[in-house]
Design goal:
It comes from Hoeflea algicola. By secondary structure, the protein is an alpha+beta fold. It is built from nine helices and eleven strands.
């Protein structure tokens, strides 16, 4: 029996796989909605019938890529794609190289620290270490946060080409103008001083400090960030300025381990 699910578009000469395309469409749609979506909403958004969407969702749920919550009838992404991405050698190596430095720094400054890479218009947290104390302010491993809301994002934005930056800002024009304006100010400040320091856009009182991690070519591939909180009644308190200096040193250390001669804290004059 011939499998007709994969065909060749005679005009373009390209192979098509309609079933695979539908599955990927669902995953990409769910990735843009943190609350999950009902089957009917997915079908409407993708302009597909409910029956064909249901078959796809059944397979994706069975394979563990999608979860279903009976009480709300919503489908949502699981962490499986994130786990698969971590099997990819560059991400796995980046995490493994950075994690010991991150642990030492978190212990030394009594602050949480996380490692982020660019993921579309978001940052993706690929490694995270909590502060050693009881009171923790941290970002969940695997979390995706809009790039313009973060210090990490200002650094990762600088790694984009000028054309990519223009396209990102075009897509961001419908978002809150004050946040985008602040983001561009922090981006410009990073290019001048080699690190980013900005008040959190989501938690009052938190100051995000972020430094770039560079590979052997000097290109920025990730950002190392501390959401700094001013701790009270702490026996060994490390100030914001001291924490910043130690974070810059940590960025240099990890970048060196990645083979870079251009370190965190150096100005980005691209």
């Amino acid at each position: 029996m011939t499998d007709t699910s994969d065909t060749v578009d005679m005009k373009s000469g390209k192979y098509t796989a309609p079933a695979l395309s539908k599955g990927l469409d669902i995953l990409e749609l769910l990735a843009s909605d943190a609350d999950g979506m009902r089957k009917s909403d997915i079908a409407k958004a993708l302009e597909r019938s409910i029956s064909e969407i249901f078959r796809m969702l059944a397979v994706l749920t069975e394979r563990g890529y999608v979860s279903f919550e009976p009480s709300t009838e919503r489908y949502a992404l699981t962490t499986k794609l994130f786990e698969i991405a971590h099997r990819h050698p560059p991400i796995r190596r980046l995490s493994s190289v950075a994690i010991e430095t991150m642990r030492k720094l978190a212990l030394e400054v009594n602050q949480s620290i996380h490692l982020a890479i660019q993921h579309g218009d978001d940052i993706l947290i690929i490694a995270q270490v909590d502060a050693p104390g009881n009171n923790v302010t941290s970002v969940r491993l695997g979390a995706r946060v809009p790039m313009e809301e973060t210090a990490s994002g200002a650094i990762l934005f600088s790694a984009l080409t000028e054309n990519e930056q223009k396209k990102f800002l075009q897509r961001a024009k419908d978002r809150e103008a004050s946040i985008v304006d602040s983001f561009l100010v922090h981006f410009d400040a990073f290019r001048k001083r080699g690190y980013c320091q900005s008040p959190s856009a989501v938690i009052e009182g938190v100051i995000n400090i972020s430094v770039p991690l560079r590979d052997y070519s000097g290109a920025i591939i990730a950002a190392l960030t501390i959401p700094f909180v001013n701790r009270l009644r702490t026996p060994h308190f490390v100030s914001l300025e001291e924490t910043k200096a130690l974070l810059i040193d940590a960025g240099r250390e990890v970048s060196a381990l990645l083979g870079s001669n251009t370190f965190a804290g150096d100005h980005d004059n691209r």
